[in-house]
Request: fold
Amino acid sequence: VRSIEGIMKKCFLFLIVFSILHLTACGFSSSGMIHSRLAELNNATAEKTAQNQMDEIQSAIDAQDNEKVKTLFAPAVKDTTVLDDGISTLISLFHNQINSVERSGGSESEENNYGDKIATYAYHFLIDTKAQDYVLIIFGCTDDYRSSDNIGMTKILVMPSSWEECPDEVGDTGIFIYTE
Reply:
């Protein structure tokens, strides 16, 4: 009787310890997998968003439609005259000049402060024109706990593809165009 009681206690103790370890490990594993999958989806969303924005920009350039470009910008950025001037310059630079556009890379970043999230992206596109090649970088925001007015495209930077670095004087919002 004693040995059966001892064996049962050991089995019961083993089951409790095993269950706790298993549940804890699964909890961490599931949480990690969920976080990883959400990050994957956010990156895919940012990449697709940037590609759609580039397609819309190219279409607006072809149609010389300044307003179409402006609608892509975050509401917090839209109401500036500097933006209007930048859009006009962008369209005049590329109208009837683009041979091809190809996405060449990009990045996403996320700031998470106790559940308050800001997710941003920057995607690069190589633009082959009749005159020279350019890099067009689209900067944007996909999530901002501070204000939904910050969600959307925030900046476009255009520079010759031969340049290795972005100019230092580029601001946070708007359109910045550099030529040689």
Notes: The chain has four helices and five strands. The longest strand covers residues 98-113. The CA atoms of residues 66 and 88 lie 7 Å apart. The helical segments are 2-63, 66-70, 75-78, 81-94.
